[in-house]
Design brief:
heterodimer, A: alpha/beta, Rossmann fold, 3 domains, six-stranded mixed beta sheet, two-stranded antiparallel ribbon, 12 strands, 23% strand, B: 517 residues, alpha+beta, 4 domains, five-stranded mixed beta sheet, 51% helix, 13% strand
Chain lengths: 367, 517
């Protein structure tokens, strides 16, 4: 039977989704959400879902409490509202946080930005099965016996049956105590995607710019993960030379050298050739820079893109982040060199507000 | 006794308990409606709690939100609802299936306390005792509107009504504020001539019998009266919902929905008005019955644990259970020993006061009287004493605007009592009246906030004006005080404006001026 409250709960969820969608631009711009991702769930602060009413602000307000303390001693922060007269029975006046799964968030993003579904290429429907030892069973070959669990169980049994003597801590597993590892077949789908993030870390890229890149990468990741069964991300930083790094280093490195973008494109190309054959992988290359490239390098970049990267990838995106030192010429160069190339997306991101449109530019092509 | 006990699939052991506890309650002189206990899982209890106790309430998303929070809070082990009891005849109460037997006893005893309070406290006398059926009707009506006019449209409208839900006249249930308009009385209209009543007199006596100055005064008075009757509303109206119901341009279904929201708001009013007393009374009785009659020796520790959990205090908030039970105990004790009246008050000797005992023995009778006639405000006003505040370590706290924290303000009795009463006044919510329904002769709505030193939360106020505008359809205004300046907040359907009024800044009135109601 469907309970009455289910309807209300569903309406509530719908409204939450609606609110998030309506304010998507704001949420996208705020970096705080990324900080809160704990794996599967994101929690999103939603202040405006309360029904407003005329009520007092906290200024000059007060109340009565009980307990020790001297005059002037603080007793609590005023979050959003009053400590309240009624203890325990009034529902919290605190900021409402709703939890969403990453899939739901991606769906909202997709609806909000009107993103088309991505048609994966490659051997989309081939699924490989592989065994992984992830489970525990009560029977199995001795070679797979789980030593720690077995002894833990034996210890439990001995304590419970009062045959355990702490002075003579002898634990002997009997048959029922024994636990064995077991395997589960894991389906490895083949519509995999790899996202290569390239970022310019030369001196002119400041922390603000990196923050923009971080937020944008988060949303692109969220969307791509909802579209593919498996998404691998790889990170490349470059100044005059390029190297592959892990995620943390990617966002926290700052070099001072000049800029040679072709170095990154070269490395990306090498990685694709070595690990991600385009026949099997959906490849995304996203490059962020302030566009201040070493002049003579541009020609090389363009030829690398035209001959190597563009034919291999689903999408190549270039986001030019405006830095305090102004914006470079690279954007213009690319714009002139490539006209009407379907898998090349260019966007200029002036500030955080620009992220929204930039994401739409990158992902709006359904590739 | 057994015939009082319902057969609503209550397990046999609990039914036995109910019979037993009901017996004790009667023995102690409690007087209550027939009680129906239902046993629920936590999920079901969360559902009913989210619906405010009424399983058949109208559909609205906020109940869903509440439900999510309650069930999540329980799953994460943060909170747990122990009991729920509904003011209705018969009285419905809910028990949590997984509770221990001692908890079930405690809850049952507690419920009989509430039940007695609902039935006998004067402030509940005007509530609908068939609310269970009424809310079911409300639910059906709103559901049918949703089918006819669309879920979203009706729900949005409910949002607007709820946003104004607290703008009711909490005493109107007991006071006749105005005559019901007599639609067959045409006199007012025909009374256009300014004739003033004159006493009969001979010509030469006329200036003595009907002195001209008096006549002039009468004319003026009459004019003033007419002026007033041209005002709309005649007197500032506290019951903003009623005013809207009578005067806003609403469809029939909208009027009905607004009426439903208003009725439910009035139904819940006395529960807000007597929170401290109601919980105090119920706690007093569960503790009395448990410790003198019901408890089994093996249950004492668990009982003590759970009872003290309910009575726990935290610095930033006042536990109504604790304050209520202690006040009732204090009253009982004082009236047992005769510690009241002019003689006792005049006594300055602390030691003598402490030992004061006239063996009056009227404690029980007194608390029964108190539970009949008082509400929280009069209860605290009458029975909170300096000794009590001291004994219970009470303090008042205030907001430190610079640090955004609350800090202890004082341990002075006067200050504590003042803060407490202020918090209870109108449930700690601002008092707002409709003063003008045809402002600037353009059908604009003008509300005034009676400012007693606390400013409104501005963002909320503006959002609320938006909802008000949706009902009224013409521009709406709210006169209030912001940072000591008289200010007019307006919303004309598209834009908000805030502008200072008059220029004369209002000093916050002397605290003693605070109206109680």
């Amino acid at each position: 039977m469907v309970r009455k409250i289910e309807r209300d709960a569903n309406r509530f969820k719908q409204i939450v989704r609606g609110k998030i969608k309506a304010d998507l631009r704001k949420y996208i711009t705020h970096g705080e959400m990324i900080g809160k991702t704990g794996g599967e769930l994101v929690s999103i602060p939603l202040p405006q879902i309360q029904i407003p009413e005329f009520r007092y602000g906290s200024k000059n307000s007060g109340g009565v409490g009980q307990g020790p303390g001297d005059v002037g001693q603080p007793i609590g922060r005023s979050a959003d509202g009053e400590p309240g007269q009624g203890a325990g029975d009034s529902p919290g006046r605190h900021l409402l946080e709703v939890e969403l799964t990453m899939d739901e968030l991606a769906a909202i993003l997709g609806e909000g930005l009107a993103l088309p579904r991505i048609e994966p290429k490659g051997r989309a429907n081939i699924i490989e099965e592989k065994d992984k030892y992830t489970g525990i069973r009560q029977t199995g070959p001795e070679s797979l016996r789980h030593f720690k669990r077995t002894y833990k169980k034996a210890l439990k049994r001995q304590i419970a049956s009062n045959t355990y003597n702490p002075r003579d801590p002898l634990v002997i597993p009997v048959r029922e105590d024994k636990l064995y590892r077991s395997w589960n077949p894991i389906a490895l789908p083949h519509s995999n995607a790899v996202v290569l993030y390239l970022m310019d870390v030369s001196g002119s890229m400041t922390d603000d710019q990196k923050e923009i890149v971080r937020i944008e990468a988060f949303w692109i990741d969220t969307w791509l993960r909802s579209q593919y069964d498996g998404v691998t991300t790889r990170y490349i930083i470059h100044d005059a030379v390029a190297k592959e790094v892990d995620q943390h280093t990617f966002y926290h490195t700052r070099e001072s050298g000049g800029t040679r973008i072709s170095s990154a494109y070269n490395l990306a190309n090498k990685i694709i050739e070595a690990d991600h054959p385009p026949a099997d992988w959906n490849i995304y290359v996203l490059h962020f820079s302030d566009g201040d490239n070493w002049g003579e390098d541009n020609r090389q970049c363009i030829s690398l893109l035209r001959d190597q990267i563009l034919p291999k990838s689903n999408l190549f995106g270039y986001g030019q982040v405006e830095s305090p030192y102004g914006s470079g010429e690279f954007f213009r160069e690319l714009e002139e060199a490539f006209e009407n190339v379907p898998n090349l997306a260019l966007s200029e991101i002036r500030n955080k507000e620009g992220i929204y449109d930039s994401i739409k530019e990158f992902l709006g092509r359904g590739r | 006794m057994a015939n009082l006990v319902n057969s609503h699939n209550l397990p046999a052991d609990l039914r036995e308990l109910q019979v037993e506890i009901e017996g004790y309650a009667l023995e102690y002189g409690l007087d209550f409606y027939n009680t129906i206990f239902e046993v629920l899982d936590y999920d079901e209890l969360s559902e009913i709690a989210a619906l405010g106790g009424f399983p058949t309430r109208y559909p609205h998303w906020r109940f869903g939100m509440e439900y999510e929070q309650l069930s999540k809070g329980y799953r994460y082990g943060l909170q747990k609802i122990y009991e729920m009891v509904i003011n209705n005849d018969p009285c419905y109460a809910y028990l949590l299936r997984c509770n221990m037997r001692v908890d079930q006893k405690l809850v049952m005893a507690h419920v009989y306390g509430h039940n007695d309070f609902f039935k006998n406290n004067h402030w509940f006398s005007q509530t609908n005792r068939k609310m269970m059926d009424e809310t079911a009707n409300h639910g059906n009506r709103i559901r049918s509107y949703m089918e006819r006019f669309g879920e979203e449209i009706v729900e949005d409208f409910i949002d607007s009504c709820l946003s104004l839900e607290n703008l009711i006249d909490i005493h109107s249930m007991f006071i006749k504020r105005r005559d019901t308009p007599d639609r067959y009385n045409f006199e007012r209209d025909s009374e256009a001539d300014n004739g003033v009543h004159k006493f009969q007199s001979k010509d030469y006596m006329d200036s003595y019998v009907n002195p001209p100055s008096f006549l002039k005064e009468q004319v003026k008075k009459k004019e003033a009266e007419q002026q007033k009757s041209r005002q709309f509303p005649e007197n500032p109206e506290r019951d903003v919902l009623l005013f809207l119901l009578e005067n806003a341009p609403l469809n029939a279904w909208q009027r009905d929905v607004l009426d439903i929201v208003r009725q439910e708001a009035y139904y819940f009013t006395p529960q807000g008005q007597t929170k401290i007393m109601n919980e105090g009374w119920a706690s007093y009785w569960h503790s009395t019955m448990m410790t003198t009659r019901i408890l089994d020796a093996s249950e004492v520790v668990d009982y003590a644990d759970h009872h003290s959990g309910t009575m726990a205090t935290s610095p930033g908030s006042l536990n109504p259970y604790k304050l209520g039970i202690e006040l009732f105990r204090d009253i009982e004790d004082r009236w047992n020993k005769g510690q009241f009246g002019p003689e006792y008050d005049a006594c300055e000797n602390t030691e003598e006061r402490r030992r004061w005992d006239t063996k009056l023995g009227k404690g029980r009778a007194k608390i029964f009287e108190v539970r009949k006639i008082h509400n929280d405000i009069t209860f605290v006003d009458t029975f909170l004493t300096a000794d009590f505040c001291k004994r219970h370590n009470m303090f008042s706290f205030k907001h430190n605007d610079a640090q955004e924290t609350y800090e202890i303000e004082s341990r002075q009795f006067q200050q504590i009592k003042e803060r407490l009463l202020f918090g209870l006044t109108n449930f700690g919510q601002p008092i707002i009246r409709v003063t003008e329904g045809n402002y600037r002769n353009r059908s604009e709505l003008y509300l005034r906030h009676d400012h007693f030193g606390l400013d409104l939360k501005l963002d909320h106020a503006q959002d609320t004006l938006r909802h008000l505008n949706r009902l009224w359809t013409r521009p709406v205004h709210l006169e209030t005080v912001v940072d000591g300046r008289s200010t007019l907040l307006s919303f004309d359907g598209t834009d908000h404006t805030i502008r200072p009024l008059g220029g004369a800044s209002h000093e916050p009135p002397d605290p003693k001026d605070r109206r109680r109601n």
